[in-house]
Every structure is written in structure tokens, then in C-alpha cells.
């Protein structure tokens, strides 16, 4: 029998032993006995006899005895399962790393908010309010609004998402976000489904086309001008993709409201709303200064990616592995994370001094493209802003004045 088969059969045994449901049944039986039992109260002898008979009846049902033996059997089968799992899985000698409980609660809290589990977040607020910083607590209201907007969007109600986009219009425009276009496209499809072709056409002219063209055709007065020249220029230039997208939508006007079965059936696919939901989530989290994936999910994903290599290393180094880890105060080897998990890596260590940069000693970009900490740069230039020095990593020369501060 393979290890997995053994674990599977032991799991089945544990499931069978979990007969906790028989306890309420036996309690019900005891309640029935108690209900039907009547204390005659005639004299002490008959009362004693009645009590004795009641005692023996209750014992026959045997909750206490049955329960303790069930618990013992369950405990033994759980123990066997645990042993089998430990035997089947490699046992890395990883050191116990003390965790900051407060930080852990905060990370859990933010994760639950981002995942839309407000019931759990509220329970954390009740039970560990002291561990959650006030700015973190303030994230709940906007994230509740985000999840309400996402639910509405999936139910084809665009108004909360449109209201959010209107409130953050300047930011979205500055970032060149696709969200306004995706929402306008959903509103266009909504008009088509209702057969409101004129409203759809007006929306395409007033919202979709300007959004597809981007900022390139704004007049000095800030008004979008859709002259023939602008459109011709846009179709040939950078906005060609946006123009093509709007053109393909225009064809669907001829089929409204019977889009299903037509070549424009794709406009009814739920993926369109999902695309808008994804964009809204990204923009709303970014506006709150939060990454797309919560710190907790990134930790779990990073752990999943590096743990097999750490386990292998621990089996190679044995007990020395823990000493190496403890002495350095960090992982004993550099482990590369997949690019999708590198979103939290905002630490830059100077390649000359090997120290992480700080706001007082920021990373500086040299004209050759190499980056050093300001402290290392100052030493190379002997404190002068105009003295030329050679980059430690290439033959190019530079001065401190030529270097630019990098903001992480
Ligand atoms: Zn260089």
C-alpha cells in the first residue's frame, strides 16, 4: 500500500469515528426519560426507588460512557493519521521564527477585507481591535463599497462602479486606466440588449469614442473634439486599436436587441463584466495603496514556491541549516520567486556597501544605468558633487550631480 493510500484509508477511519452526531441523539433519549419520569413524592422509600430506576435507565443510554469511548477511539485514529502524515512527508529542520502577533492580525485583517470576508474582519475587529492600527481599520468602508460595486457589476448594475469611476476620474485619466472604457462598453451593451439603439449610439459618440482615443484629441479647452481630421489621424496613429474596438461595436447596432445568435454574441459573455471587475479591483486597491494580491496570499504563494527548495537544503545541511539561518537572521540562501510574486520586493541593497537603502540614504541611478546608495556614491566622489569618478561596475564616468534619486 502506498503512503497516500495508507493516509487515505486512515482518513476514512477518522471520518467513521467522528460519530459525534450520536451524542445529541442519546441526549434526546435521556430528555424523553426525564420527561416521562414523574416524581410521585409519596414517601422517601418510593422516591428513592423511583430515583434508582431513573438512574439505571439513564445509565443504559450511557452518554458519558459512550462519549468517552468514542472520543478515545477518535483520538487514537487521529493520532495514527498524524503519524502516517509525518512519516510520508519530509520533516524539514526549519527554525521557529517568532512572529509579530500584531502584524499577523493586521495582515489577516487586510486579507479578509480584500477577499470580501467582512464577517471575519468584523470578528477580528471585535476580538483584536488593539492590534489593528487606525489607518488599517479605515480601509473597511472603501473595501466594503468596492465589493458592493463588484457584486452590482456582476448583476449588471453599473451605477456603483460608474460612481466610483466618476469620483476618481482624474486619477484614472492620469494613469490611462482602461476601466472607464470597459464600463462604457458594458453600458453600451446594456442599451443594445434593451433595444435602445439611439441611446447606445449617443453613448458611443460621447463616451466610448473619446475614451478609446484617449487624451490625444483633447482641445486646449479640455473638450474632446471629434473632427474628421482628428479621427483620420487617430485611426492611423496610436489610437488605431481603440478606433478598431469602437468600430467593431458599431456593427452590433444593426443586430440590437437580438444579439444572441449574431456575430456580436460575444458582447453578452460574462467575461466582459469580469474584465471590468478586475480593472475596478486593481484601480480601487491601488487608490488605497494596497497591492493586487494581499500580503497574506503573497506570503503563502512565496512559501509554496520556496519551501521545497528550503526542505531540500535542510536535508543536505542537517542541523547546521538552522544555525546558518539563525546566525544570518534571514534565509540562508537567495531564493528567486516567480515574477508574479515579486510585487512586495521594494528593498534595494547597495551593491557596494551591501546595506539596504533608506530614505536618508536612497538608491541613486548613474547615467550608465547602474545604481548605488547615496552614501557609497558620496565616498566615491569624495564628498563633491562635481568630481568625476568611475562607476564601480562599468568604465563610464559620472558625478554625484548627474545621479538621480530612485523612489522605491
Ligand atoms: Zn556603470
What's the gist of this structure?
By secondary structure, the chain is an all-alpha fold. Helix content is 60%, strand content 3%.
Question: What can you tell me about this protein's structure?
Answer:
60% of the residues lie in helices and 3% in strands. By secondary structure, it is mostly helical. The protein has four domains: 3-88; 139-218 and 236-287, no CATH class; 298-331, no CATH class; 345-408, Herpes Virus-1 (2-Layer Sandwich), CATH 3.30.40.10. The strands form two sheets. A three-stranded antiparallel β-sheet has the order 2-1-5. A two-stranded antiparallel sheet has the order 3-4. Helix 2 runs antiparallel to helix 3 (44-61) and helix 12 (197-213) runs antiparallel to helix 14. The longest helix has 26 residues, at 63-88. It is flat and about 110 Å long. 16% of the residues are buried. The structure holds zinc ion. Zinc ion binds at residues 366, 368, 370, 391, 393-394, 396.
Summed over residues and divided by their number, the pLDDT gives a mean of 80
Major sheet characteristics: 3 strands, antiparallel
Tally of domains: 4
Global morphology: flat
Query: How many helical elements?
Result: 18
GO cellular component, one term: nucleus
GO molecular function: ubiquitin protein ligase activity; zinc ion binding
Subcellular location: Cytoplasm
Protein name: RING-Gid-type domain-containing protein
Amino acid at each position: 500500500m502506498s503512503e497516500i493510500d495508507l493516509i487515505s484509508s486512515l482518513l476514512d477511519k477518522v471520518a467513521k469515528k467522528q460519530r459525534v452526531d450520536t451524542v445529541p441523539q442519546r441526549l434526546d433519549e435521556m430528555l424523553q426519560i426525564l420527561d416521562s419520569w414523574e416524581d410521585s413524592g409519596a414517601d422517601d422509600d418510593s422516591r428513592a426507588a423511583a430515583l434508582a430506576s431513573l438512574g439505571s435507565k439513564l445509565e443504559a443510554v450511557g452518554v458519558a460512557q459512550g462519549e468517552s469511548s468514542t472520543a478515545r477511539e477518535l483520538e487514537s485514529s487521529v493520532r495514527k493519521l498524524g503519524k502516517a502524515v509525518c512519516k510520508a512527508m519530509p520533516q524539514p529542520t526549519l527554525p521557529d521564527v517568532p512572529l509579530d502577533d500584531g502584524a499577523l492580525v493586521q495582515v489577516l485583517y487586510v486579507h479578509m477585507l480584500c477577499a470580501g470576508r467582512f464577517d471575519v474582519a468584523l470578528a477580528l475587529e471585535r476580538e483584536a481591535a488593539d492590534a489593528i492600527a487606525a489607518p488599517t481599520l479605515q480601509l473597511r468602508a472603501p473595501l466594503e463599497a468596492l465589493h458592493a460595486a463588484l457584486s452590482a457589476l456582476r448583476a449588471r448594475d453599473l451605477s456603483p462602479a460608474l460612481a466610483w469611476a466618476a469620483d476618481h476620474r482624474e486619477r484614472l485619466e492620469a494613469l490611462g486606466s482602461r476601466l472607464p472604457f470597459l464600463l462604457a462598453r458594458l453600458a453600451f451593451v446594456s442599451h443594445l440588449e434593451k433595444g435602445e439603439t439611439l441611446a447606445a449610439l449617443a453613448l458611443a459618440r460621447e463616451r466610448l469614442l473619446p475614451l478609446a482615443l484617449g487624451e490625444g484629441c483633447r482641445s486646449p479647452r479640455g473638450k474632446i473634439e471629434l473632427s474628421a481630421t482628428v479621427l483620420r489621424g487617430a485611426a492611423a496613429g496610436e489610437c488605431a486599436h481603440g478606433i478598431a474596438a469602437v468600430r467593431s461595436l458599431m456593427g452590433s447596432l444593426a443586430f440590437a436587441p437580438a444579439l444572441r445568435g449574431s456575430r456580436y454574441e460575444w458582447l453578452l459573455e460574462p467575461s466582459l463584466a469580469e474584465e471590468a471587475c478586475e480593472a475596478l479591483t486593481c484601480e480601487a486597491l491601488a487608490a488605497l495603496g494596497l497591492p493586487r494580491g494581499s500580503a497574506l496570499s503573497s506570503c503563502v504563494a512565496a512559501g509554496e514556491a520556496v519551501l521545497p527548495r528550503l526542505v531540500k537544503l535542510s536535508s543536505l545541511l542537517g542541523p547546521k541549516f538552522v544555525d546558518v539561518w539563525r546566525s544570518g537572521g534571514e534565509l540562508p540562501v537567495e531564493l528567486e520567486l516567480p515574477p508574479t510574486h515579486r510585487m512586495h520586493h521594494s528593498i534595494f541593497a547597495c551593491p557596494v556597501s551591501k546595506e539596504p537603502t533608506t530614505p536618508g540614504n536612497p538608491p541613486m541611478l548613474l547615467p550608465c544605468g547602474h545604481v548605488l546608495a547615496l552614501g557609497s556614491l558620496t565616498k566615491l566622489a569624495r564628498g563633491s558633487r562635481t568630481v568625476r569618478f568611475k562607476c564601480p561596475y562599468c568604465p563610464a564616468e559620472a558625478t554625484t550631480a548627474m545621479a538621480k534619486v530612485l523612489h522605491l
